[in-house]
Amino acid sequence: MADADAEALAAEQAREQANTGTKEVAESHRFDEAALIAWMQANVEGFSGPLEVRQFKGGQSNPTYQLITPGKKYVLRRKPPGKLLPSAHAVDREFKVISALYPTGFPVAKPYGLCTDDSIIGTWFYIMDMVEGRILWDQSLPQYQPAERNAIFKAKIKTLADLHNTDYEAVGLGDYGKPGNYMGRQVDRWTKQYKASETVHIPEVERLIKWLPQSLPVQDRTSVVHGDYRLDNMIFHPTESRVTAVLDWELGTLGDPMADFTYVLMGWVNGTISTIPDLKAHGIPTIEEAVEHYCAITGRSGIKDLNWFFAYNAFRLVGILQGILGRVRDGTANHPDAANMAPRVLGLAEMSWAYAKKAGAS
Hints:
By secondary structure, this protein is an alpha+beta fold. The chain has 2 domains: about 20-130, Phosphorylase Kinase, domain 1 (2-Layer Sandwich); about 145-360, Aminoglycoside 3'-phosphotransferase, Chain: A, domain 2 (Alpha-Beta Complex), CATH 3.90.1200.10. The protein has 12 helices and 10 strands. It has helices spanning about 5-20, 35-45, 90-100, 120, 145-165, 180-195, 205-210, 255-270, 280, 285-300, 305-330, 340-360; strands at about 20-25, 50-55, 65-70, 75-80, 110-115, 125-130, 225, 235, 245, 255. Strands 1-2-3-4-6-5 form a 6-stranded antiparallel sheet, with helices on both faces. A two-stranded antiparallel ribbon has the order 7-10. Strands 8-9 form a two-stranded antiparallel ribbon. The protein starts with a helix and ends with a helix. The model is unreliable at about 1-5 (pLDDT under 50).
């Protein structure tokens, strides 16, 4: 193994150790376990205690717990306690989409129940199956050989294409989002989240807030979109190069599939993949090959407006990370590194404006 690969592997292992597995439930996220048990006995088919509750490490948004019984493990996701931004942490929407997709064979965890009664554990929550497998944190996949890297990336892209090909009306998701003008609504959403969480003035963000709504691309298709589709938001089979569960549907809705796919492509322009000198030798598809693979499955002839979408995706990340900084300000952040997001916000704002200029902004 080359020195660079060894360093990358060590970095991935450190990140994986910090972000995977479970820990004791944080004091600020504890709840009445007896009340949860009573609810599960009434609402989760096949549930039988006793119950042990652990909290998953990592994560920035909805606190997530592992529920362990003698015969089965479950996962509980809840809204965080405390002051919340409007429309954020919609666990009911997460439950809705996985409940619709699960019967189709699309890889999501089996849903068991949704609770919208705050009196049970203090906030809304839902319970789903615990899917065992691999979560891959480092997109360069230093622990694998080139052929398996290629297979993993193609499986990632195919799974997203399969989502975008899903007939959302037929699976009961016709009301999962508003029709049309998805990009306009998204720009407005992340602008509002940024403003609600703003901690410092960033000139590039102000320029983007003005330019993005004036330059929206034409939306030619509507599909279910995940909103945060990346390797560490999915579980791979323990030994096979296939996705067994797509996780974290908090940002899911109906919208322009190009927003989802170009977010995946951000890894080639502003992520670990962009630092790999020879993608072919490494086994990861080039950005052109990734586009070709996706387009072949979805019946597209190509992708337009890439620079606009890169500007938008970076802007959206600015809004997401600024939301975390806002929770630090309000005392509701649930990640020890949340306060370190400020430099990333500034860097993403500068990158977003650079792509905006490539797309014609001035």
